[in-house]
Design a protein that fits this description.
- With 334 residues, the chain is an alpha/beta fold.
- It is built from 14 helices and 13 strands.
- It has helices at 16-19, 24-31, 34-43, 92-100, 102-114, 116-132, 153-160, 172-179, 214-223, 241-246, 264-273, 287-297, 304-308, 310-319; strands spanning 51-52, 64-70, 73-78, 84-86, 89-90, 143-147, 164-168, 185-186, 199-205, 225-236, 260-261, 276-284, 325-332.
- The strands form three sheets. Strands 8-7-6-9-10-13-12 form a seven-stranded mixed beta sheet, sandwiched between helices. Strands 2-3-4-11 form a four-stranded antiparallel beta sheet, with no helix packed on it.
- Bound molecules: zinc ion.
Length: 334
């Protein structure tokens, strides 16, 4: 799968101030390893019985080599298929506790609710447009399920086109917020939705990397798609500019929350193996903005020169395939 050539005039700027309302990003970075910090202060390390080894989430091999260590957790690379993943991970019980923690809820609320309207306009509509390109029947009602919908900003954008859009998420405050805006959101796991209800499009934005078993969710998605139904997803890109520029300080390297790290090659293998045909693959990110934030706030460097050309630099990164998010649209095969 080749990356399409892109023209700079199509670049959509991101207003980072609106996306990350004052102080919310600093809070996220400060609190990112809170569950682990607590354990370290109590036990001096993560107790072994909190952790469990996992096989490669793509090929099930248990043959791996260490890539790096961050926040007291190892990230490894599969010797068989090159997929990068956190190993060992917290066992299910402790993993769920990380998400239930008040600190995480607060961070999500701060980032998600305050920027909801901006996200509808800037990202929701962009996603709808990207999917529309591949719909075979644009006239009929499109049924869409957004898995991990957060506050429902994408569902809100899909509603603007009269799509029949539903969102699910496990975060109660995000669901409450979206429902209060009249959106069809439900706090439920995908596995609890009947597989008799089929959707033309199922989306998974920033979801796969959080899951212990990404293969299982893809299977569940397949069962709930119509014939030739589409999936659209974003996942962090392991070999991105963020990591080239910041090493393991790159913000997306977050082993307590991000359990799998894809590249163009490994996500393509992963989906093809599970009977999806990839229609489009792109990278897009905030690599330069994260780099500026890091230089200013962590390294106390002046970033004036880079700031002036940040949008151009980010475009070059995206177009070159080094943006920190992989964006991909794929079609269910028979
Ligand atoms: Zn593997």
């Amino acid at each position: 799968m080749k990356i399409e050539y892109r023209v700079i005039s199509e670049y959509l700027e991101v207003d980072v101030e609106q996306l990350r309302p004052k102080g919310s990003y600093k809070k996220l970075i400060d609190k990112r390893s809170y569950p682990i910090d607590k354990l370290i202060s109590e036990f001096g390390e993560i107790p072994k019985d909190y952790l469990r080894l996992r096989n490669c989430p793509n090929c099930n091999s248990n043959n791996f080599k260490k890539e790096l260590n961050k926040d007291h957790l190892d990230i490894v690379k599969c010797n068989n298929c090159d997929l990068v993943y956190t190993n060992p991970i917290f066992d299910e019980e402790h993993y769920l506790e990380i998400y239930k923690a008040a600190e995480y809820q607060e961070v999500v609320r701060d980032l998600g609710e305050k920027s909801h309207e901006y996200r509808v306009k800037r990202f929701g509509r962009e996603r709808v447009k990207a999917i529309e390109r591949y719909l075979t029947n644009k006239n009929s009602d499109v049924s869409l399920l957004d898995v991990g919908c957060s506050t429902g900003f994408f569902v809100e954008a899909a509603n603007e086109l009269k799509w029949d859009a539903k969102g699910i998420d496990l975060n109660p405050s995000a669901i409450d917020f979206g429902q209060s805006r009249g959106l069809n959101l439900e706090q439920v796991e995908l596995s609890k939705l009947s597989s008799k209800n089929k959707y033309d499009v199922i989306t998974l934005y920033d979801v796969l990397e959080h899951l212990v078993d990404p293969s299982d969710i893809i299977k569940q998605v397949r069962e709930r798609l119509t014939n030739y139904g589409l999936i659209s997803m974003y996942v962090p890109k392991y070999d991105s500019a963020s990591r080239v520029l910041m090493g393991k300080d790159a913000h997306f390297i977050w082993p307590s929350h991000h359990l799998t790290y894809f590249t163009i090659k490994t996500i393509s293998d992963f989906l093809q193996k599970r009977s999806f045909e990839i229609l489009e693959i792109k990278t897009e990110g905030l690599d330069i903005f994260d780099y500026i934030w890091w230089q200013e706030n962590i390294n106390e460097q002046n970033t004036e020169v880079i700031q002036k050309i940040s949008n151009n630099l980010q475009f070059f990164i995206n177009a070159g395939g080094y943006g920190k998010n992989l964006r991909l649209i794929a079609k269910k095969k028979d």
